[in-house]
TrEMBL record:
Protein name: D-3-phosphoglycerate dehydrogenase
Family per similarity comment: Belongs to the D-isomer specific 2-hydroxyacid dehydrogenase family.
GO MF annotation terms: NAD binding; phosphoglycerate dehydrogenase activity
Root EC class: oxidoreductase
GO BP terms, alphabetized: L-serine biosynthetic process
Pathway(s) the chain acts in: Amino-acid biosynthesis; L-serine biosynthesis; L-serine from 3-phospho-D-glycerate: step 1/3
CDD domains per the UniProt record, alphabetical: ACT_3PGDH-xct, PGDH_4
Amino acid sequence: MKILVSDDIAQEGIDILNQEYQVDVKTKLSEDELVEIIGSYDALVVRSATKVTAKIMENSNLKVIGRAGVGVDNIDLEAATKKGILVVNAPEGNTTAASEHTIALLMALARNIPEAVRSLKNKVWDRKRFMGIELNGKTLGVVGLGRIGREVAKKAIGLGMNILAYDPYIIKQQVENIDIKVVDLDSVLKEADFITFHVPLTKSTYHMVGEKEFSMMKDGVMLINCARGGIIDEEALYEALKSGKVAGCALDVFEKEPPLESPLLDLPNLIATPHLGASTQEAQVSVAVDVAKDVIRALKGEMVKNPVNMVHIRPEEYSEIRPFVDLAEKMGSFYTQLRNGRISEVEMIYTGKIERMDVKMITTAGIKGILSNILQTPANLVNAPFLARERGIKIIEKKINQEQDAPGVVTMKVTTDKGVGSVTGTVQANADERIVAVDEYKIDLIPRGNILLTFHRDRPGIVGKVGTLLGKNDINIAYMQLGRKSYRGEALMALGVDENLPDDILSEIRKIDGMENAVLIKF
Ligand SMILES: NC(=O)C1=CN([C@@H]2O[C@H](COP(=O)(O)OP(=O)(O)OC[C@H]3O[C@@H](n4cnc5c(N)ncnc54)[C@H](O)[C@@H]3O)[C@@H](O)[C@H]2O)C=CC1
Ligand SMILES: O=C(O)C(=O)COP(=O)(O)O
């Protein structure tokens, strides 16, 4: 396996990658240069400089893209997901660095530090021009109250500031005990003396601050953007700074980086740093190590810690969930080997002890198993939900509450244009997977090796005929199971066979009088 690192990451991360796989570090590549070489790599590690476009991913064999940092707006996530490329990031390592940089910019703004430094270095001793304002007692608006937003708020509280925050996706009670008042965006805009942004760049945050929002702010407000360029409309910001509506703004990030052509840089009340939020030695080591470990986990097929485009399971739950993930994938594969028809709906029903857990990954594995037999595109835990949606398959998850210690049971109910069928499985002690029902037939199958399933009439002679036919062709039967709906009614037989069953023998089995269907399932 080969890994390409296309932005500067700390050596500590490269060393970890190098212990397991071959690593090439090639930075400042153009899109075309990347397209040309990417085919020979299994993993790509980036920071924010490399734009990982659909074109780069298109003909790649990438299994994972690692982002040594938080923001993944430089990676085309939709294209990655469609292609089944896992994206992982390192969201924890630079929280302190980015929040400290935000506070540094806040103070620099309030006390005119950059301009004062510049003036003095030009040998001008001007104390009057650089009169500042105090932070103590002022209101700081925090837009986006995730890891960095919260850390900034805590630090600002320490400086005597009052915090008004806007984040529609958090639970208010989580933060109100640390003296943060959660309000709507309009209130932040209207009431804050300083506003700092800590949201990711998404469709909903792109230009979330423009002309209209500036008009709502206090005259003389000061802004800090240490999150992403594009959140504040730069043209509108230019006007607001020029008019003095916004007294000062500190930007660490720009819509186009580097922003060397930006007229904003000419304004005296704009201070700027070249995307330095995460640039501390500590943060860089931390994110490089974190992402390297996750990239290795991904390449080894292990559960990663920080997936961006795949369901996430907490490590403490994963060991319990894992056998069910494997089982569900086999159930899905079992189902589509057994039946055909255009699938419109898959319902995953969970009962017993599994019902209390986060089952999203089990559902996804079931879908992966289903799709693996019907699609050319390889399905995995990243792209399975996307591929299912693309084919118009509705996925339903249902949990049925049972007594606490009942064994975990998963039923996959599949609706096709030919009807509804189901398969049920469970995991016994020692991660022993079992398929325990097919439609209404109760069975007890280990989903392993070759299994011959026959649907036939429950009448004397049929089982014997199948056995004789297999014996005549030197095919050994490992085990046998029988189930029936009623005496002499419809019946099911499952035979574990040690050898492969050629198509001509399967056809002969299908011709046995009373036989409705016979299918070979392979695991
Ligand atoms: N300047 C730099 O070097 C750095 C910049 N960043 C940027 O900071 C951003 C935030 O990082 P973290 O706090 O670690 O991420 P996070 O995911 O912990 O927090 C983001 C918060 O934004 C909130 N949010 C999302 N959409 C929103 C909306 N429309 N309105 C209000 N709130 C919204 C989310 O609910 C979440 O609480 C990153 O996405 C990245 O772009 C991060 C690290 C360094
Ligand atoms: O982690 C982030 O989101 C950052 O913005 C840091 O970017 P960088 O890795 O310094 O290019």
